[in-house]
Design a protein that fits this description.
Elements (H helix, E strand, L loop, with lengths): L1 E6 L5 E4 L6 E3 L26 H10 L3 E4 L23 E3 L4 E3 L5 H11 L2 E6 L6 H12 L5 H8 L10 E4 L14 H18 L4 E4 L12 H10 L5 E8 L6 H5 L2 H21 L7 E9 L4 H11 L14 H16 L4 E7 L8 E3 L5 E3 L3 H10 L3 E3 L2 E3 L2 E2 L7 E2 L1 E7 L5 E7 L6 E6 L8 E7 L19 E3 L9 E6 L3 E7 L1
Parallel strand pairs: 1-21, 3-4, 3-12, 4-7, 7-8, 8-9, 9-10, 10-11, 11-12
Antiparallel strand pairs: 1-16, 2-15, 5-6, 13-14, 15-19, 17-18, 19-20, 20-25, 21-24, 22-23, 22-25
Helix pairs in contact: 3-4, 3-5, 5-6, 6-8, 10-11
The structure holds alpha-L-arabinofuranose (AHR).
The site of alpha-L-arabinofuranose has 10 residues, from loops.
């Protein structure tokens, strides 16, 4: 058995975990909205057409904020299409996903849904085909009290009180050639700055997320952040990061090491933000919004076939990745990585929430079930709030195809406001258990109250509508402390663990 250790001290703190670290994302894409959250006529639909089983599953995840309405979709979106009488809303070709958008669900409907789901909206504006003018209009529509053109339009559309949307994304992945209205970093930085100024003049209480490069693998990465921040630093609050990983070659050890890259990505963006801060002699600190993260690769080939057959249809079953057990382990490690960077990552969105690369799946007219990745997210959201601790981890390491010195044990710890502590840990070893020696001396009397484990003997095991509990966490018997302040725990080979101390 391998050996690893964690030292925790209540005074070694990384920073406050912003609840919005457990955000998610719903795009007008595939069956996320139509057939996902919204399916009038479904036996479990409420009076507004929203599926109650999906709302219940979202509520169990505890998602405080949902990014909406895109994604790539937003770069061709006209917000005015999505408000007013539903029967008068236009059908539009969506050039992001080659489907037809009917606008049956728009801002008012989505706001009502987020209320039911116990969440808030993080609203993305179109800075692809549109600009600052339409950006200020939608802020006025959504957040201004009344007695102006767009706020009065909202009131006439049945919403007297402002929606009060706090967080706004200034476009999406604007360096991507796949994006409608792709821009250079300078063009984007200038447009984002002007949009930001006008949006904040309408409502000074809002927070704005500027698009970082659409991934660390982009040739634009780094220079994009530097150039665009140079233009809009003073008027934005967060820079966005997006990253998806996959395992197309079936190399589990390498796949599970992907968070080495994620951590590096975060640290690089922080360094660039702080370099611009220094250059500008600014006292403002820009934080990060990791507003798209997940595993995404299973559905790529299937999607090409769908487009060949059904281009321009409504609610195509796109990006419907079926997640397996190893995906859940990586999602667990990604959550650990976010927690370890909680001082700078203040918002994060698991992309996405329902059907589209999602923890929750539905069948049209049928059931709703949790994919494997649902569980680490649910547990981190439930037990990962408070203050992130600087866990000193000692672990055996391994080398794999793309990474060297990968710790077998990946871990993060959170101190809760009531003094209890939760440790999240992934054992990345394919075959060997790890004996973890936890040193919690500074906490005095803390005892291991619960040990939750997610494991399956088959890394490719999945959950389905017929077999929804195939991959699901269990509570295992807890071990007694070996001596004052020290606890030994066995972490099974390939497992996600939640250790709750009280
Ligand atoms: O989440 C799916 C897509 O991935 C989003 O629309 C886009 O922003 C990213 O490329």
């Amino acid at each position: 058995m391998k050996k690893a250790g964690i030292i925790l001290d209540k005074d070694y703190q990384i920073g406050r975990v912003d609840d919005r670290l457990y955000g998610s994302f719903i795009e007008h894409l595939g069956r996320a909205v139509y057939g996902g959250i919204y399916e009038p006529g479904h036996p479990l639909a409420d009076e507004a057409g929203f599926r109650k089983d999906v709302i219940a599953a979202v509520k169990k995840l505890g998602v405080p904020i949902v990014r909406y309405p895109g994604g790539n979709f937003v770069s061709g979106f006209h917000w005015e299409d999505s408000v007013g009488p539903v029967e008068q809303r236009p059908k539009r070709l969506d050039l992001a996903w080659f489907t037809t958008e009917t606008n049956e669900v728009g801002l008012h409907e989505f706001a009502a849904w987020t209320k039911k789901a116990g969440s808030d909206i993080m609203y993305a504006i179109n800075l692809g085909t549109r600009g600052p003018e339409q950006a200020r209009d939608i802020v006025e529509y959504a957040n201004h009290k009344g007695n102006s053109r767009f706020s009065d339009m909202r009131i006439a559309n049945g919403q007297k009180d402002p929606f009060g949307i706090k967080v706004w994304c200034l476009g999406n992945e604007m360096d991507g050639p796949w994006q409608m209205g792709q821009k250079t970093a300078y063009e984007y930085g200038r447009t984002a700055n002007e949009a930001a100024k006008m949006m904040k003049w309408v409502d000074p209480s809002i927070e704005l997320v500027a698009c970082g490069s659409s991934g660390s693998g982009m040739p634009t990465f780094g220079d994009w952040e530097l150039t665009m921040l140079n233009e809009c630093y003073d008027n934005i609050d967060y820079v966005s990061l997006h990253r998806y990983y996959g395992n197309p070659t079936g190399d589990t050890q390498n796949f599970l090491a992907s968070t080495m890259d994620m951590d590096d990505f975060i640290k690089s963006v922080v360094a660039i933000c702080d370099a611009v801060k220094g250059k500008k002699h600014s006292s403002r600190k820009i934080h990060l919004s990791f507003d798209e993260w997940n595993v995404w690769y299973h559905s790529n080939e299937q999607d090409k076939e769908i487009w060949k057959r059904e281009k321009w249809n409504r609610a195509l079953p796109l990006l419907e990745d079926i997640y397996n057990f190893e995906d859940a382990l990586l999602v667990g490690s990604m959550l650990i990585t976010l927690l370890r960077n909680a001082d700078r990552v203040k918002i994060a969105c698991l992309a996405q929430l329902v059907n589209v690369i999602a923890p929750i799946m539905t069948r049209n007219g049928g059931g709703c079930w949790a994919q494997t990745i649902y569980y680490p997210f649910m547990q981190a959201s439930a037990y990962g709030r408070g203050t992130a601790l600087n866990a000193i981890v000692s672990s055996p390491k391994y080398d794999c195809k793309e990474y060297t010195d990968v710790p077998v044990l990946d871990a993060a710890a959170v101190l809760h406001d009531d003094g209890s502590v939760t440790v999240f840990a992934v054992n990345r070893d394919l075959t060997e258990d790890v004996l973890l020696d936890l040193d919690l001396r500074s906490f005095g009397t803390l005892k291991l109250k619960e040990h939750l484990v997610l494991h399956h003997d088959d890394v490719k095991a999945v959950n389905t509508e017929e077999n929804p509990d195939n991959v699901k966490p269990v509570s295992v018997p807890v071990v007694e402390s070996t001596e004052e302040g020290r606890i030994l725990v066995k972490l099974q080979a390939l497992s996600w663990n939640v250790l709750r101390f009280e």
